[in-house]
UniProtKB/TrEMBL annotation:
Residues 336-364 form the 4Fe-4S ferredoxin-type domain. The keyword Protein biosynthesis does not apply. Keywords: Iron, Iron-sulfur, Metal-binding. SUPFAM superfamilies: alpha-helical ferredoxin (SSF46548), NAD(P)-linked oxidoreductase (SSF51430). It comes from the Bacteria. The keyword Iron-sulfur applies. One of its GO terms (molecular function) is iron-sulfur cluster binding. It comes from Ruthenibacterium lactatiformans. This is Aldo/keto reductase. Coiled coil: none annotated. PANTHER family: D-THREO-ALDOSE 1-DEHYDROGENASE, OXIDOREDUCTASE.
Amino acid sequence: MEYRSYRDTDCRPSLLGLGCMRLPTLEPGGTAIDYARAGALVDEAVRGGITYFDVAYPYHGGGAEKFIGAALEKYPRESFYLATKMPLWKLETQEDMEQVFNEQLANCRVDYFDFYLCHAVDAERFEKIRRIGAFEFLARKKAEGKIRRLGFSFHDKPAVLRAICAAYPWDFAQLQLNYLDWTVQRAREQYEILQEYGLPCIVMEPVRGGALASLCPEAEAVLKAKAPGRSIASWAIRFAASLPGVLVVLSGMSSEEQLADNLAAMSPFQPLTKSEQNALTRAVRIDKRAQRIPCTGCRYCMPCPFGVDIPGLFKAYNRCAAAKSTGRFLKESGDIPAAARPAACRACGKCARVCPQHIGIPEEMAKLRALEEKLREK
């Protein structure tokens, strides 16, 4: 495992970090964490050299912080780096921030956070940071030693990112960065802004919620021909880790197999070569023709007021699109009950307003409804 120094200090987190948004659950599609399996996953991650663990207040229905606190309590506090995030959407006053911050310390069973972030900052939440004095509050917590490094995770346009970077003396930032979003969501411009401001980058969604673990057959053939022994997902992990200024690449691992594959890709880490980068560029060009819905499965859109399983339906469709077989959509989504299918959508727009990927979810759901109707007529 590679360990990169934070700004030439003795803070050296593992290049691969464990994201705790997609831990093993007791039921498929549920939020309740399977403590036995997830605990074993954390233990195996530690044995594999992972020292950076990323969680947030709302992950797993509010249960992820409590889980990671219990899972890491057996290890010496100085042996790992823990990151969590302030849920800006819940807060309006300094008292609110104090209450939630203390709750997070208690949840995680720690006295301080190594990395602490304002969560999912966009233009609206940037204004809220200024309005409620969130940065000033967190700076005080940093002065008290309860936060070691203060940053933010980001979901918006490059111009907004530049304004945020210029407004406060942040210690780091967390970006959604992968080889597809490099151009599709202007991740390259965002990354270059962090480089300009000298901010270390924590990478989230390097495999785009699992979407880049499999590509269309023609694109996969390009990558397999170049590196027969490597998984498709490993290309995404190595792409992010190859960028200068990246401190940690987070992966939301939900199975022992995913952990083993990621550890194999990073131990030892080998940056992408020029010829590998060229192969990846060709594969991306081919895969874009599949026209998948850019959903990462983050579940910020859930619960739907009308019971629609938004991430489940998008995942099923994307599997079909990648295989160039949208005619299999009914079969791929067959475990989703009728009450949670596209016809239940009422286009209220609540989901689209909170989607970090800015997907027009009601419009996409209307397309899936039309696809279903067409397939059922056959």
